[in-house]
């Protein structure tokens, strides 16, 4: 399996571990994404991933329904199955930032999304998720490539100033419009 696909699937597995144990009440809590509950964040992750697969002719079947964890697990299984189609995932196309592949898009953008939105969901549940150093390295590496596109509607809120003594995680989250202090 191509390493980019494997890394994306690894991010999806970590997202599963971090998010699927929430209670029904926690899924209804407000998230760090203005106007969205934890459930809304999960729906966004599922729907945007389904959209990118569909744009490349990959049908993931009917949109999963049910309890949040059930919907996510069904979606993740469909995405994992689709990821076996390396021919489609490695085909070059012209994206908004130039020539790319679906494997690159899944890793760079949707991998970022899985990390950030796991933090959003855990924060909504009242917990402060500590991202790993590897995840912080990843976020730090991908953000600069997007420039102002990062702040388009439905991507990230405007950057906020982190305190001078903020942790690396807090500074990186602040770049995405999230306040963790």
TrEMBL record:
Keyword hit for Cell membrane: no
Pfam families (UniProt xref): MDMPI_N
Annotated Gene3D superfamilies: dinb family like domain
Record keywords: Isomerase
This protein's record includes keyword Isomerase: yes
The Mycothiol-dependent maleylpyruvate isomerase metal-binding domain, residue ranges: 14-94
GO molecular function: isomerase activity
Entry superkingdom: Bacteria
Cross-referenced InterPro entries: DinB/YfiT-like, Maleyloyr_isom, MDMPI_metal-binding
Protein name stated in the entry: Maleylpyruvate isomerase family mycothiol-dependent enzyme
Species per Swiss-Prot/TrEMBL record: Arachnia rubra
């Amino acid at each position: 399996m191509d390493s980019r696909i494997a890394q994306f699937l690894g991010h999806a597995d970590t997202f599963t571990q971090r998010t699927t144990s929430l209670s029904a009440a926690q899924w209804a809590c407000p998230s760090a994404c203005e106007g969205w509950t934890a459930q809304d964040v999960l729906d966004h992750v599922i729907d945007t991933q389904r959209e990118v697969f569909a744009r490349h002719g990959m049908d993931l079947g009917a949109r999963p329904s049910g309890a949040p964890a059930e919907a996510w697990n069904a979606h993740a299984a469909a995405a994992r199955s689709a990821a076996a189609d390396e021919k489609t995932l490695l085909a070059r196309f012209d994206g908004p930032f130039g020539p790319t592949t679906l494997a690159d898009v899944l890793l760079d953008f949707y991998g970022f999304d899985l990390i950030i939105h796991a933090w959003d969901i855990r924060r909504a549940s009242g917990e402060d998720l500590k991202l790993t150093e590897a995840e912080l390295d990843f976020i730090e590496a991908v953000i600069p490539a997007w420039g102002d596109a990062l702040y388009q509607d439905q991507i990230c809120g405007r950057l906020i100033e982190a305190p001078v003594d903020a942790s690396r995680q807090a500074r990186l989250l602040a770049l995405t419009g999230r306040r963790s202090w």
